[in-house]
């Protein structure tokens, strides 16, 4: 799976741990670890909760993608 989220990066920037995030969300540390490793992804509701806890825009938790178009409509 490709890197879709930046949760681990934002946690490091804020000097917070996966355990802290897991405790705040009521999730297991294993689940948060999988998100940080981009093995699995949180659902959108959980991603919104993470953004609120970290006081960042939800878009800051996502890896940007570049749109390319090959055809005109």
Task: Please outline the helices and strands.
Blueprint (H helix, E strand, L loop, with lengths): L6 H7 L4 H8 L3 H8 L7 H11 L19
Structural key phrases:
434 Repressor (Amino-terminal Domain); globular; 4 helices; mainly alpha; 73 residues; 47% helix; single chain
Describe this structure in words.
This is HTH cro/C1-type domain-containing protein. Residues 21-61 form the HTH cro/C1-type domain. GO terms for molecular function: DNA binding. With 73 residues, the chain is mainly α. It has a single domain (7-61), classed as lambda repressor-like DNA-binding domains (434 Repressor (Amino-terminal Domain)). The protein is built from four helices and no strands. Helix 2 packs across helix 3. The termini are far apart.
Share of residues in helices = 40-55%
> What integer value in Å does the Rg equal?
14 Å
* Count of individual beta strands: 0
SS field, number of helical segments:
4
Structural class: mainly alpha
CATH topology term: 434 Repressor (Amino-terminal Domain)
Described by the principal axes of the CA atoms, the overall outline is globular
Largest sheet: none
The span between the termini is 31 Å
CATH architecture grouping: Orthogonal Bundle
Oligomer: single chain
User: Can you tell me the residue ranges where pLDDT is under 50 for at least 5 consecutive residues?
Assistant: none
How many domains, in number, for the residues?
A: 1
The CATH homologous superfamily corresponds to: lambda repressor-like DNA-binding domains
The CATH class name reads Mainly Alpha
The succession of helices and strands, N to C, reads HHHH
Strand content: under 5%
Organism: Phocaeicola dorei DSM 17855
GO molecular function, one term: DNA binding
Domain HTH cro/C1-type: 21-61
Protein name: HTH cro/C1-type domain-containing protein
């Amino acid at each position: 799976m490709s890197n879709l989220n930046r949760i681990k990066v934002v946690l490091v920037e804020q000097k917070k741990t996966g355990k802290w995030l897991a405790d705040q969300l009521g999730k297991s540390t294993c689940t948060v670890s999988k998100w940080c490793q981009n093995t699995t992804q949180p659902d959108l509701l959980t991603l919104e909760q993470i953004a609120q806890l970290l006081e960042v825009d939800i878009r800051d938790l996502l890896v940007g993608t570049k749109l390319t178009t090959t055809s005109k409509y």
